[in-house]
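Tokens for chain A. Residues wanted.
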């Protein structure tokens, strides 16, 4: 049995809008001069470009027709992070959220996947930069493995219940 959830186009569209706004802002020679002569601003812009590049990659995966989440009886695959996690390695699956903004304007929801041995799973990440980043930040959240529901097309509660059902039916005792 296999079930797939598609990517939502919202985040890649927001990234394209950000790129258009940034190109308009830096088309002014004065703003470009400030960028090239202020190292702190240059670092901030580079970090923003890394964030946009990640979202454009998600947009590319969407255009190629790749699903965001693939559920099988053996594992869950999170395409945005290139993670495949076997159900027998999972301890728990639950819903979490984080808020952004002064008055919690935007609330992001996640399906958090708690792993028995996260260090072993992190060693399986192929990209060394991503592997080291996720290893260093593994204690910042409940788990380094989660499904960002902002990236998945569909109802958040329905997606969570489907993932939870797969976990409960296929976990090894």
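Reply:
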């Amino acid at each position: 049995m296999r079930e797939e959830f598609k990517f939502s186009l919202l985040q890649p569209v927001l990234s394209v809008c950000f790129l258009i706004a940034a190109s308009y802002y830096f088309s002014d020679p004065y703003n470009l001069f400030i960028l090239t002569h202020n190292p702190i601003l240059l670092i901030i812009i580079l970090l923003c470009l890394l964030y946009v590049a990640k979202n454009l990659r998600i947009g590319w995966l969407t255009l190629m027709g790749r699903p965001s989440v693939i559920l099988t009886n053996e594992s869950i695959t999170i395409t945005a992070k290139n993670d495949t996690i076997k159900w027998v390695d999972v301890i728990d699956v639950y819903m979490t959220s984080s808020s952004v903004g002064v008055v919690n304007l935007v609330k992001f929801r996640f399906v958090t996947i708690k792993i028995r041995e996260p260090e072993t799973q992190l060693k399986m990440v192929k990209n060394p930069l991503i592997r080291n980043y996720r290893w260093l930040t593994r204690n910042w959240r409940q788990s380094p493995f989660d499904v960002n529901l902002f990236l998945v097309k569909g109802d958040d509660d329905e997606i969570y219940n489907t993932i939870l059902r797969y976990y409960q039916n296929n976990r090894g005792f």
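The two ends are 20 Å apart (CA to CA). Residues 39-63 form the longest helix (25 residues).
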